[in-house]
Amino acid sequence: MTDAPQAAVFLDRDGVLNDPVPDPVDGRAESPLRAADVALAPGAVAGLAALIDTGLPLVVVSNQPAAAKGKVADENLLAVHDRVVALLAAEGLEIADWRYCFDHPRALDVARRDCACRKPRPGLLTAAAADHGLDLGASWIIGDTDADVGAARAVGATAVLVEHPDTAHRRSPDLVADAVVPDLAAAAAWVAARVDRHVALR
Ligand SMILES: [Mg+2]
Ligand SMILES: [Zn+2]
Fold first, then answer.
1. Residue 103 C-alpha to ligand 2 middle, in angstroms?
2. Residues, CB-to-ion distance under 5 Å, ligand 1
3. What is the mean predicted confidence (pLDDT) over 168-185?
């Protein structure tokens, strides 16, 4: 055994674990804002099971600015979180660590406008690394937008971009991921093929 920093897998939530839903105003895919709107994304169950099998620590890192922008109450976001956790639990899947940024540059509350944790800023990642002794440079980030790739770049992690069909408007050709895959099942397979199991399971 050793206390050396350990690689981890950071997972974005919307577009990776669960499907986004159309915004009622402009029709664009956004985070679900009601528990009843939550559905697991294609490949999420198989992919998460495969990631759990790697033995690597898993941490969810997600931007959830809707309450800060005044679109919903904080309770809505908590209810959505609970629903995602429950749907995964119904499949026998559990993630120990969920980290959210609830801030936004146009937040009604000025104090929530300039945070260190809204992806692509790395605050959620660095906080998890400090709490768990993680080696961010040896870690993976799986997400469906430029913000996820940017957060990976900010800490030297490996970026796996999931091309959820509903969130193409949040991906540009400017940020190049280390792998581009269709869903979490494919992302997990790509990561698992690169995990040093001796390291992961020590
Ligand atoms: Mg996402
Ligand atoms: Zn934040």
1. 4
2. 12, 14-15, 144
3. 95
User: Residue 188, SS3?
Assistant: helix
16 CA to centre of ligand 1 in angstroms: 6
For the chain, the structural domain boundaries read 9-200
Which among 110, 125, 197 is positioned nearest to 157, based on CA atoms? 125
**144 is an active site residue:** no
Provide the pLDDT for residue 24: 78
> If pLDDT is split at 50, 70 and 90, which confidence band does 201 have?
low
Q: Which ligand is nearest to the CA of 127?
A: 2
Residue 27 CA to its chain's centroid (Å): 22
> How is domain 9-200 classified at the CATH fold level?
Rossmann fold (3.40.50)
pLDDT for the residue numbered 27: 86
Active site annotation includes 14: yes
**pTM exceeds cut of 0.85:** yes
